Amino acid sequence: MQSTARVLVTGGAGYIGTHTCIQLLSAGYQLLVLDNFSNSSPEALHRVQAITGIEVPGIEGDINDAALLDRLFEQHAIDAVIHFAGLKAVGESVAQPLRYYHNNVSGTVTLCQAMQRAGVFNLVFSSSATVYGDPATLPIREDFPTSATNPYGRSKLIIEEILGDLYTSDPRWNVALLRYFNPVGAHPSGLIGEDPSDIPNNLMPYIAQVAVGRRERLSVFGSDYPTVDGTGVRDYIHVMDLADGHVRALAWLQQGLGIKAFNLGTGRGYSVLEMLKAFEQACGKTLAYELVARRPGDVASCYADPTLAEQELGWKATLGIEAMCADGWRWQSQNPEGYRS
Ligand code: NAD
Ligand code: UDP
C-alpha cells in the first residue's frame, strides 16, 4: 500500500480506531472514517484532528447500509479498508446474540459485498485472542485450534471463516486478520483514550475509574488460578503499539499474499494484581480492591507468541506496562468522565 493511499476506517471513532487513525495520518495515509457512534463520540475525531493538525473526514453511518457504502466507494478512491466497527461486550452478546450477529457478522458481509462491487480487495480485520478459547499450552501461536465460548467470540470466528471463504473464491482478496490480545493505555497526549459508556467490563478502564474516584474498589475475579499470585494473567498491549500494527498490516497487504492471521501481543503476561500495582505507581495512589469469585468463562492465562507478526509484518510491541499505565492515567485524570468531561 502506498502511504498516500486512501483508507476507509470503519469504527474509526472508537478506542483502537482513533489511535490507529493518528498513526495512519502520520504515516501519510488519507482517511475516511465511517462510524455510527453507537459506542463513541464525534468528539473523539475532533481530538484526533487536534493531535495531528489534519482534518479527518468522518461519515456518520452504519456498515449495514449498503447504499451508503456504495456511495462512499464511488465518491472516494478507496484503496483499502480497516474494519474496526463492531460490538464488543461479551456479557451483552450472551444476552443479545442476534444483535451481535447482525451488527458484526451481517455488517461485515455487507461491507465485503460493497468492497467487491467497488473492486477493493484489501482488508485489515479486527479479530481477537478470544478466538483461541482456552488454549492447551502457552504462548499462543496462530496455528492453535480456535473455538468460541460466547456470541461475541463466535462472531469473530465466523467472520474469520467467511473471509477465508472469500479468498478461496477470489484470490484478488488480501486480508490481514489481526488477533488483538488486551489493548490498554492511551495516546501520550492524554487527549484520546478508552471511554466505556457503561460500567467497564475490562480490567484497565475499571482500575482507572477507581483511581479517579468514579468506582469504589476493583473486584478481582478469582484468586485461585494456577498463576504467579492466583489472579488471571493476560498479555496487555499498549494501544499505540497496536495502532502501529495496523500500519504494518496495510503495507503487508501490498505484497498480495492472501489471507493470514497475526497475533498482536507482547508475548508477556501480567496478573491482575501486577497490573493494579503498576497503575498505583502511575497514579501515586493506593487503590482499593477485593478478591471475589472467578468470572464465568475466564481462562487462567492468555499470552501471545508474537513471532509471526515480527517476521512477516516487521512489527513488534515496544511499550511496557509502565507506559500503558502512565498514558492510561493521563487520559483518565484529564478526562474523568471521558469525552463528556
Ligand atoms: P469501540 O467500541 O471503541 O470501537 C468500535 C467502533 O465501531 C465504535 O466507534 C462504534 O461506534 C463503531 N460501530 C459499531 N458498530 C457499528 C456499525 N454497525 N456501523 C458503524 N460503526 C459501528 O471498540 P474498540 O475497542 O476500538 O474495538 C475495535 C475493534 O477491535 C472491534 O471490532 C473489537 O471487537 C475489536 N477488539 C477489541 C478489543 C479490545 O479489548 N478493545 C480486543 C480484541 C478485538
Ligand atoms: N478482571 C478483574 N476485575 C475486573 C475486570 C477484569 O479481575 O473488574 C480480570 C479478569 O478476570 C481477567 C483480567 O482481569 O483475568 C483481564 O480481563 P479483561 O476483561 O480486561 O480482558 P479479557 O478477560 O477479555 O482478556
Automatic annotation (TrEMBL):
One CC-aspect GO term: cytosol
Catalytic EC class: isomerase
This protein's pathway: Carbohydrate metabolism; galactose metabolism
GO process terms (BP): galactose metabolic process
Cofactor requirements of the protein: NAD(+)
GO molecular function, one term: UDP-glucose 4-epimerase activity
Protein's UniProt name: UDP-glucose 4-epimerase
Record text on subunit structure and interactions: Homodimer.
CDD domains attached to this UniProt entry: UDP_G4E_1_SDR_e (cd05247)
Ranges for domain NAD-dependent epimerase/dehydratase: 7-265
Family of this protein: Belongs to the NAD(P)-dependent epimerase/dehydratase family.
Catalytic activity: UDP-alpha-D-glucose = UDP-alpha-D-galactose
PANTHER family: UDP-GLUCOSE 4-EPIMERASE
InterPro entries according to UniProt: Epimerase_deHydtase, NAD(P)-bd_dom_sf, UDP_G4E
Keywords associated with the record: Carbohydrate metabolism, Galactose metabolism, Isomerase, NAD
E.C. numbers: 5.1.3.2
